[in-house]
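[09:14] KT: can someone run the structure on this one? pasting the chain below
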Amino acid sequence: MNKPNRIFFTGAPGSRWSGIAQKIEAELDLNISDRTSERTYSHGEFSGHVGAYFGTGMEFPAKLDDATLDAPYADPSPGKLHKSHEWAYMLEGIKALHPDDAIFLVYRPTQACFDWWKQAGGWDISYPNYDWYRDDETMFKKIDEQNRAILKFGSSNGLTWQHVAGFDDILIAFYTPGLFHG
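[09:31] RB: done, structure tokens below
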């Protein structure tokens, strides 16, 4: 299996995408040289957030240029998982600008996302920064927008959705232009 240089990974806040990302990083032996103690948030028994997150108000903006995307990684090896809620708004642009790279999508219904995000710490989450969402009403609206964008991209690109083991309400799809399978 050839690893793409970049894997763009997106899901709405509360979709449990961070835990899924960690499993994918481990299973595919991806580049995790973006992990630092400052880029870590844990809550309860769950691993929370690790590694760089891209987005508004964060250490790395959600920009698709090579310099920004490579900045968090100490190791230039391929297999960098780039996590951002905001990729949901840029999926067609990612596909056009990075045609040899993969896109992983996580979908969970909006209310379930919002409820889990609150349970995981909500506004008290220390990393990544959720300030740009402003308040609960805006957070709910943005979760819904991101979910709709994720589903639209999946539909318009004929992606197959799969349930995540152990979670009936979480779906994942992969846009992998021939990299992981024929």
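[09:33] KT: thanks! Residues 6-175 form one domain.
[09:34] RB: yep, looked fine to me
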